[in-house]
Amino acid sequence: MGKKFVASFSGGKDSMLAIYKAIQQGNELIALITTYNIDENRSWSHGLPKSVLERVADSLGAPSWAIETTGEKYAENFEKVLKRAKDYGAEVCVFGDTDIEGHLHWGEERCQEAGIEAMFPLWGKGREALVYEFIESSFTANINVIDTDRLSDRFLGSRLTKSIAAQIAATGADICGENGEYHTFVSNGPLFRQPVYFIFGEKIFRDNYVILPIE
Question: What pLDDT score was predicted for residue 97?
């Protein structure tokens, strides 16, 4: 018997692939939870507005829960939502982390405090293998944030394909973007009822980051 789960959802490729693999293992998605930066009015890291997150959730057939938080109360507010998820029947929270021990321990600690299980479907599978599995699974993702200290902004807006992934790796950057080189937005794939409509806004330059807003 599978378990009911919520997913720590960024809108990017790793969290989407983790959800996909959890469902393939027979588990049931009941909600997407996304940390939302109340100072920026966009999600943390991937910079997505609530309207886009809700369109994704609608296509996936699961509600979107925004964890509205500052950085100081990030962990505390994450735990509050996990406890709410448990009340709704969630037994598990799925994370898209791959191999960074600090991320693993953070997720485990939040779940332990909330009294549910932490699941990491991508853990230890290999970064290159995961990127290619994501692409081969027919998901559509575009690069919407780049750390220009680690990767050229020429990749901004590109659809993540095998060719683009290979070009990223050829620059010496991590192919999976696991060190923060880039973030993605997933708009279509095997879990989607229909493609998610979106447009790119004007580029935003913030310190060493260049952001292509998703609207």
Answer: 95
